[in-house]
């Protein structure tokens, strides 16, 4: 049985203040960055430890892997959550590169099936956030297929997560609906709430469809 969840437009009075939203987003990004940053420090500590010189190769590998992960997350977050300078349109090939960088550190695989050469800022943010959310819905692996097609004056986006134990956290669904977090983890909720917020501001909307071993996120964005 499937359950499609249409997400309403955000009201004129948001459920949280802008300062709170900024704090939650900052906390979310810091949580993503702290793990690879700490791993880099751990690798450097090993290199400086005279008693651990036999682990030098492992330490260098840890530093290299963690530095790549941190770089990938920073570049992704700059577009997905930030203003990304003054850009108003984004090359879809660059968006794919950012998404693949993040999926390189996830268990899920990514299939990128976006044919448009360029998209506007709301669509770019929607593509990246929904792709990452689809990957997060596959904790034990699977495939996230990201598609986007033009339908009239809108771009229709779908991020289809299929795999064993695919699931949608309740706080993600609340965020997509534009509702307060309630119980659960702030990091998952605030990303979904942010997607609801910027799509509503752009005149778009977002949906979630939940089936056994499958979660589909879909959005429409004016172009």
What does this 3D model show about the protein?
- The two termini are 33 Å apart.
- The longest helix is centred in the first third of the chain and has 31 residues.
- A hairpin with a 2-residue loop joins strand 5 and strand 6.
- This protein is globular.
- It has six helices and eight strands.
- The strands form two sheets. The protein has a six-stranded mixed beta sheet, with helices on one face.
- The N terminus is likely disordered.
- Helix 1 crosses helix 6.
- The protein has a single domain, classed as Heat Shock Protein 90 (2-Layer Sandwich).
- It is an alpha+beta fold and 223 residues long.
- Helix content is 48%, strand content 23%.
Question: Can I get a quick summary?
Answer:
This protein is α+β, with helices and mostly antiparallel strands and 223 residues long. The protein contains six helices and eight strands.
């Amino acid at each position: 049985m499937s359950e499609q969840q249409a997400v309403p437009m955000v009201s004129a009075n948001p459920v949280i203040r802008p300062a709170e939203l900024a704090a939650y987003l900052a906390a979310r990004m810091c949580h993503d960055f702290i793990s690879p940053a700490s791993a880099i420090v751990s690798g450097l500590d090993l290199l400086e430890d005279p008693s651990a010189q036999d682990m030098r190769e492992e330490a260098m590998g840890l530093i290299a892997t963690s530095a790549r992960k941190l770089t990938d997350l920073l570049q992704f977050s700059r577009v997905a959550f930030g203003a990304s300078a003054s850009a108003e349109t984004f090359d879809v090939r660059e968006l794919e590169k950012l998404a693949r960088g993040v999926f390189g550190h996830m268990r899920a695989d990514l299939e990128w099936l976006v044919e448009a050469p360029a998209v506007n800022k709301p669509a770019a943010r929607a593509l990246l956030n929904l792709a990452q959310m689809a990957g997060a819905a596959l904790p034990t692996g699977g495939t996230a297929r990201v598609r986007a097609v033009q339908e009239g004056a809108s771009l229709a986006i779908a991020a289809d997560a299929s795999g064993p134990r695919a699931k949608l956290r309740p706080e993600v669904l609340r965020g997509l609906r534009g509702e307060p977090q309630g119980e659960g983890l702030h990091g998952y909720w605030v990303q979904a709430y942010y997607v609801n917020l910027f799509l509503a501001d752009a005149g778009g909307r977002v949906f979630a469809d939940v089936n056994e071993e499958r979660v589909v996120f879909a959005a429409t964005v004016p172009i």
